[in-house]
Amino acid sequence: MKAVLTPNEDGIHFSFQLHDGKTVAELKLPMAKEDIEKYYKVQGFQQYVAWEELYDSGVLVDSTLPYSEYYELLKDESAKEVLQHLGLPVVEEQVGGKLSLRSLPHEADLVLQLFDAGGRNLDRVGKQAGAIYVLPDRLMLLPERVYRLKQALLDRTNQDMKKSAFANSWPTKQELNLNTFYKTKRITSLMRTI
Description:
By secondary structure, the chain is α+β, with helices and mostly antiparallel strands. The protein contains 9 helices and 10 strands.
């Protein structure tokens, strides 16, 4: 039995597969009592038990763990253990970055480039799905404030006026280091409503 984790923009979707030789079968979630009795000795069943703990706690939406709930769970040590059993990262990895204005200020085309601790551009070495970067060898969890900033930059509806006002106070074509950005008061107006 294997948990299949599929990060997307809303959260992490869970499904389970049963591997029997070359045959792979999707399991219906939550499992019926008779299926639990049938599979409880199968290798990987502990992942299902961890999933069921999340399901019973009410944090899953259609077998998807929303990122807001994910970050809340990271504050609880016992919840971290559950997440680890599922193969999810439980540490927000530090990233560096540059926030750039790539348009005229009134167009507010802000671009955020993120770099890992080794200086690699995360968009080149992995694929972003919400708060997770899917890297070739692992899943990487962004710090919550970076994820929220990325969401604010992507939000094309109610944030456009705030982004435009923010961008109008910015010299054209200037890049801003992410750490410097968080220390300035500019972030307040952009992220206040999130």
